[in-house]
Give the backbone structure.
Amino acid sequence: MLNLFTRPFRQNAPVLPGLGADSIALPLEKGCTVPAGCFAVLANRDGHTRRLSEGARVAILEGERAWCVHPGPYGCELTPFAAAPEIGLRVAFAIDAPDPREAQQRFDLYLASEGAEQVALDAFVDALQAALQRELAQGNLELPPCTSFEEWNQFRSGFNQLLYTRFGVMVDDCVPVDLGAGRDLAALLAARLAAAPLPQAAPQAMQEAFDAPLEDARALRRLFLELPGILCGLRLNLAPADCAGFRRHQDLLRRLDLVSLSAGTMPALDLAAPNQPLAASEQLRRARHSRRAAAALDEAWALLARMQPGDAARQAILLDEADRIVANLECDCAARRAVTAEAP
Amino acid sequence: MSEVVVRSIAADGSLLGVTATVRPRDGRAEVKCSVPDAPLLAQRMQEVVRLARHTEARFDSREQVVLSLDRAPGAGSRDWELACVLADRLVRGVWQSQRPVVANGWSDAWHLGRIDGHSLGVVPNGVLAGGADGLPHLGALSGHPDPAAGVSTARAWFPLVSGGAGDSLCWVEVSVRPAPHAGDEEASIAAPGADAALQARVRAVLLGARHFDGRGLGQWRTTVRFAETRFQGGSFELALVMADRMARGREFLARGRVLASGQSASWHAGRVETVEGIEPKCALLGREAGPGDRILLPRAWEGRLPAGWREEIKARGASLACVDRIGII
C-alpha cells in the first residue's frame, strides 16, 4: 500500500488527567480534538470568547488561550460561617450548556478574566465560599440559627442566583450537613492554643505573600473585562419607574462608564510618570487599591444576582446599593491612578 | 443618626467624650479625627478607626466620619481607643445600642478585631471594658465567637421580666476549651457565680442538648456565665443551648445577636417547649431587637403573638422563628 494515510486527519483526543475530578478546566494544545463529554472555551486578549463542542478540532487563533472544560457535576463542601466550621453546606454544581439568550456565557467570561492556566476545583470552591461568606456577612443572604423552610428556600434561590451570576455555574443540589467528622473544632482550637506563644509570626508572613505586580495585573484585567458586563446588567435589569429614578439610573451608568474608561487606561504600576520609577511602598498602595476595586466588582456581581427585572418594590434599595458600589469603584480607581497617597 | 457621643473613663476618673458625625465625603479622607492640642494623637486615632474597619464586611466610600475627643487624654493613655471604634460604628449604624455607651479598651491588633485590655482598676457596672474579662473582640458585641481565639466563646440573650420597669435582656455566655476527658461530663461544666440549683440545671440542659447533637460529649471543658443569676424559671434554657452550639461551631450564626426564650424537659430529643410571659417578653423584644438580630421563640407562641408584632420586628431588621426543635430546619 502507499503510505498515504499514516497521519490521521484527526488528532487523538489529548490526555487530560484529573479533568472533571480535581480540575474544572485544563489548557488545550493547538490542533487537538475536544474530548468526549467536554467542551472547549477559547478566549482572546479582549475577552471575546467562543465555545467548541466535543469532537471539534481546536484551531487557536492568534492571541487566544484555550481551555478544555468538563461540565461536571462537581461536589464540594462549603462553610458559610468561618466561626462555625462544623456546620456547612454540601453543594453539587455543574457548568451548564450555553444559554442562547446570552451574548457571552458567564463561565466563559470567568475563564477569560480570572482563569489561570488551569482552574483547579479547590481554588474554585474557595472562591465560591468567599462569595457566599461575604453575602452572608453583608446580610444579602440570610442563614440564621434554626432556619425555617421559607427562609431556607429563600436562601437557596438567592444562592443559586449568586453562583450563576457571579461564576456561571448551576447549583444542582445544596443541603446543610454536619462537617464535624472532617473539621473538628476541638482539634482546631487545641492546635491554636498550642501555637499561641508566637502570635506575631502569622500576620507578617501574610504581608510578605502579597505580590503587588501580580495582584495588580489580575485585578486590572478583571476590571477591564468585567465592567462592561456589569454595565450591561445594570442597564437591563433595572427599569426605573419614575423620572427621578431614571435620572439616577442614567447618572449611575455614566459614572460606571467613566470607571470602565479609567480602568482601561490605567497607568503602569511601577511608573510615576513616563520613565520615572515609583517607590515600592507606593506600588504596594496602588496594588491594594486595585484589589479593593476588584472586591467592589464582586459586590457588583452579587448585586446583579439580587436584581430581578420588574421588581419595583426594592428598586430604591438596589439603586442605593449600586450607588455605593460605584462610589467605591470610583474611589479606588482614582487612588490607583494617584502617584501619592491622598492628603488626610 | 446625626451625632453620637460615646464616653470613656479617663485616668483621673472623669469622663472623656468622643463625638462622631457623618457627612458626605466629597473627596476627603474617610475618617477625620481631631484632638485638642494633640495632632499626633489624632493620627493614632485615625489609624485605630481605619484598622478596626477591616473587620467590617461592608465599605461605603460615600461618607466621611468626623471624630473628635473633647480634650486630650493623659499622656500614654490608650483606653479611649475602644470608645472611638464604637463611636465610628454607632454613627454609621453598623452597631446599635439602646443606651448611652461608656467604653474603655485598647488593642495592638484592631485589624483582627481583638481587644487586648483596659486599664481600669475596677470596672463600674454598665461599662464596656475590653480584654479577656470583658469584651475580648469586637464580634462579641453580638455574641459571635472569635474566629482567631483558642477558646471559643459565644453569647445569647434571653428576656428577663420582672413586672415592668426592670425588664431587660440578660446574656448567657458559654466558653468551651478543648480538653478531652473520659469521665463525668457534668463535672466538666462549671457555672461560676450560680447557686447549686441553677448549676445543676445548666449541667442537665447542656448534657441533654449535646446528647441530641451527637458530638461534643467528652471533648470540652465548659464555663457558663450569666449577666445576672438572680432569676426564676427555665426560659434561659434555649438561649443557653444556642450559645453552646454557637461556641462549639455547630450552628449558623445570626448577623446580630440571638435573642431566645424557651425551655424543654427533653433536650436529649432537641424539643423546645413553651414558657410563660408572652406579652411582656414580646414587648421587651420589640423594644430591644436591632438589625440582624435573630429571635427564637417556642412554636406554641406562633398563633398568640400580639397583632402587628411580627411586622414591627421585621421593620427593625430582625428576623423571627417559632421553633419546636433545635437544629437545621
About this structure: The two ends of chain B are 37 Å apart (CA to CA). Chain B touches chain A through 52 residues (CB under 8 Å). The first helix of chain B runs from residue 39 to 52. The mean pLDDT of chain B is 88.
